Model the fold of this input.
Amino acid sequence: MNINISNSNGQPIYEQIFSQIKSKIISGDLKEGDALPSMRLLAKELKISVITTKRAYEELEREGFLTTLTGKGSFVAAKNVDFIKEEMLRLVEDSLQQAVEASRSCSLSLEELTDILKLLYNEQ
Amino acid sequence: MNTEFALEVSHLTKNYRDFSLNDVSFSLPTGCIMGFIGENGAGKTTTIRSILGMIQKKEGTINILGASQNECLPKINEHLGIVLNECTFPETLTTSDVSTIMKHIYKTWNNTSFSNYMDRFALPKKKKIKDFSTGMKTKLSIAAALSHDSRLLILDEATSGLDPIAREEILDVFLEFIQDENHSVFMSSHIVSDLEKICDYITFLHKGKILFSESKDVLLDSYGIYKCSKEEFDKLDASCVKAIRENKFGIEALVSYNQVKRQMSASSSSCMDRASIEEIMLMLVKGKQCTA
Amino acid sequence: MKGLIIKDLIVLKGQAKIPLLIVAVYLCFTFFSNDDMTMYHSMGTMIFSVLVITALAFDERSGWDKYSLTMPVGRNAQVYTKYLLSFLFPFIFLLFNLVVKQFLFHGLTIDTAKSMVLVTCIGVFYIALVLPLAFLLGTEKSRLLMMLIIFVPAIAIFAYIKLASGTISSTAITSITTDFTNLFSKHFLFIPLVAIVMLLLSLLVSRGIYQRKEF
Done:
């Protein structure tokens, strides 16, 4: 599992850990039931405070992404499919919103925009 | 011995002719690393000496690993690993001698562990300590502190004499030590950048008084350094400013990050950065304190 | 406490080479000049009595005295260790010399044995006076006082002799010595007893000093 922390991008460290682990779970890199490294091990390897990793894990647990069993560790929780779908939908809407605004600013018609979308979708 | 706090200091007071520790209180939760910072002469060593029973305190209570200092100190000492800022072994000893001696002092002395540290730190077994460099002496003390069943490490400026590479090595060792959640570390240092890296809590002592004892994350989240003109500064809400420093070209203020970020206008030339622990310390010591 | 004793022995092993050499040389000297052992025994006893002070000095210089407070041995152990060694060193030296006198120097007589025991007791008496000072002031600062404790009685004795017999002559010294020896001969067992009691009292004083000491 790859986690990279930036000290200077302004985002609190626990948030960076939180989002990186979350996206790995959503994308399927981390599957249901996978064991996550212990909070202390993560803190040691990244050379950060244990309280930071604890906070990130607590946030992830609160949002239903992982479960912690005392004595055993933390594991990826069963995917909350609806929740993830909602997240993805939001992402799609945001990106499309940006595309719409850009099209308007260069006077692209809806038809032309739809064509581009079809092309891109079919390509991948 | 599962206690919530590895170290609890309450209302510690000690008076000398020209210096006092005043009502010093802080607590180190078990399983965490606490950095103890302060300028030279702030009283860090005096505090640590009081904790270790080397000097008598005038007032206050100290609990170490859940036991009161006044009671069974020798028994608790089996689980204390201490590193002071001098090499405390007589110079004519070799590391093998140290091992022989410590075996008869600590019931839980682990020779294999000590040997492993000797190898890891590349310390020679037959050389006399007086021929060691400062770095080697410190590493020896640390190895000795870790080679019995220590649950609380107390270090007084232990890394001050080390080069950055040796310091990183040592900090790694401490992080390993903390992997066991019953282990805790209390370290004083004026190399604040080291503490900022690995500490969970930071306690700041200034002229015998505690200015703050706080989770490091909270500190880094809460404070910012706001650089602006006098006029922009005057517009700020006084409650969010903790200390200021003026220079010929403007004002530098230690402020509450979130509060000021909201009040900042996009068009001004002022800027706000997150404050590092070192900057917080400098501002509180050298800047003009503002009490709202 | 065993660890502390071992530490002192290891440290002193390195330091004892020169004193041991001096004592060995003196022994040979005495052997070949067929002199009586008094000078050798007295000097050796003094050297071994104060060896403990060297150990204490090492502790201070290296910061071990502070460090040992953080060990599971307790403050008193530091004091007990030094007193144990301060007794053992001159005592073992005495036993060694009694054996040497018996087998190498024309046999041991009761009187010789008594005078050797007396010298050892003086050594023990001296360290009993000096150790609390060393614990109180540290070995550096108490060094001057330690010298005074030898010289002041020595000067006092000479002064007494001068007053008592008008001149300082060897016959006067011998006769005073014989007087004292005869006095003590009758109650001889008294002397080692007093020395040991002094040492124990000194131990209690040192223990009290060390309990309150700040580092």
